[in-house]
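Q: Here's a chain of 177 amino acids. Please give me its 3D structure as tokens.
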Amino acid sequence: GPTTDLLHYKFMACRHFLANEQMQYEAARVLSETASLMKRSGRYRQLIRLIEPLFGTLRGRELWLSYHYAHCLFIVGELKSALVAIEQLVDEDLSNDATLRLAVSRLYAEILGATGQSVYGETVLANAVKATDLNKVRGFTVRQALTALGGLEFRNGSVTSAKKRFEDCYTDALKVG
């Protein structure tokens, strides 16, 4: 369909831009425009390959690509690589983007949980939620962070707290839609 064709042409453009080291900015721009669509289409490994040459060089709004890179690694089960990638992003100054900062903390906590460090992951995410002005966070990021926190609480044995958090998220979702 049209979406598949669009992704194919953007993918080809990215490969061309990445091959020409002078055009990495253009590759990052195209990837920024298509990363979410590629993830929704299940093209995780393709996105990993495209972002990998840029990882570590991205700045500003392009740091979302670093997040997508770590997230895709997590989704495909490459947990060690995902942890390395997200830890590098955790060390970045994300103070100008509350949404990215909370998304990074949530992903970091989820990766920690998946690698047997769920108590530390819960601490990381609980501290990030407390430190974030949730009114400045866009989209579903707050809900994702709170449900991930509930999952970690449940995994760590805090069943009552997790149940309340899930119920609050559910109530909020019904209000917001």
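Q: Can you summarize the key feature?
A: The chain is about 75% helix and 0% strand.
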